[in-house]
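Hello everyone,

My group is preparing for a crystallization screen and wants a predicted model to guide construct design. The compound we'll soak is adenosine-5'-triphosphate. Before spending weeks at the bench, it would help to have a computed complex in hand. I've included the protein sequence and the ligand's SMILES below. Output in structure-token form would be ideal because that's what our pipeline reads.
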Amino acid sequence: MEDLSLHILDIAENSLNAGARHIGITIREDLGKDLLTIEVVDDGRGMDEHEAQRATDPFYTTRTTRRVGLGLGLLLQAARAANGNLDISAAPGEGMTIRATFQLSHLDRKPLGNMAETITVLITGRPDVDFTYRHERNGWSLWFSTQELKSRLGDVPLNDPETLSFVRQYLTQEEQSIQHHS
Ligand SMILES: Nc1ncnc2c1ncn2[C@@H]1O[C@H](COP(=O)(O)OP(=O)(O)OP(=O)(O)O)[C@@H](O)[C@H]1O
Ligand SMILES: [Mg+2]
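Reply:
Good plan to model first. Here are the tokens for the complex, ready for your pipeline.
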């Protein structure tokens, strides 16, 4: 996987598989601390301590179609390659929080990629789930919530093609503007 946005898509898909109804994705870029943090919080079925410990092991998976699970292991690898780490905190029935850190300026830090596309793909697939997305970069931030958008849309469904293309455009613009300002 070339871009962190694809890792984020993968991690959010884990949350969907775990039955999450709310998924929060936060990206923080702190240029002063030279630190990039990605956090994904969900309210899915969670994991016990044993599962959480094994979750980054590429041979651990609860899926039945293929005997290896790569998502978390690959994210851990990407974080470590950029002088960072991956923390997982979870409890059974209490959802899960994943925090990946990266040295922002590290040569091996993968680019963020297209977050507008990642969020749009998630909403397209699961318009029934609430997604919150926040991206902070040196004092500038963007915030997006499907719940808020739904309340503005009224009867128009979230996965209406026009709504989706609005979301993609809006997020693309906002991403450009926080990159530009800092
Ligand atoms: N958000 C989550 N909530 C509960 N359990 C999770 C969550 N994310 C991962 N897990 C558990 O950790 C295991 C490993 O996840 P990982 O993404 O590495 O592999 P996978 O999802 O099984 O396979 P792949 O991502 O390759 O399709 C999962 O099978 C699941 O049991
Ligand atoms: Mg996975």
